[in-house]
Amino acid sequence: MSPKGTIHWLSRYDGSVAVTALKYNFHRAAGRILCRRRVWHAIIAFGLADSIGL
């Protein structure tokens, strides 16, 4: 059997890895949404500018 401290350290380490992975996935998803919004706004802006004749 390994010491309690080692098990605790490992579990804490695994938790931090999970949190890091969750943060990474969240930021990736948020980045995709923001990118889509930007593209969508650009399409609308160019569409409006084109219809107005600018």
Task: State the main characteristics.
0% strand; 54 residues
Map the helices and strands:
Layout: H1 4-52
What does it look like?
- This protein starts with a helix and ends with a helix.
- About 9% of the residues have low confidence.
- It has one domain.
- The protein is 91% helix and 0% strand.
- With 54 residues, it is mainly α.
- The longest helix has 49 residues.
- It contains one helix and no strands.
Molecular shape: rod-shaped
Please count the helical segments. Answer: 1
Query: Which regions contain 5 or more consecutive residues with pLDDT less than 50?
Result: 5-9
Instruction: Tell me the helix content.
Output: over 70%
| Biggest beta sheet summary | none
Q: In percent, how much strand structure appears in the residues? A: under 5%
| Element-level helix/strand string | H
Quickly count the domains: 1
What structural class is derived from the secondary structure elements? mainly alpha
The average pLDDT score comes to 71
CA distance, first residue to last residue:
75 Å
Q: Tally the beta strands.
A: 0
Cα Rg: 23 Å
Summarize the structure.
The protein is mainly α.
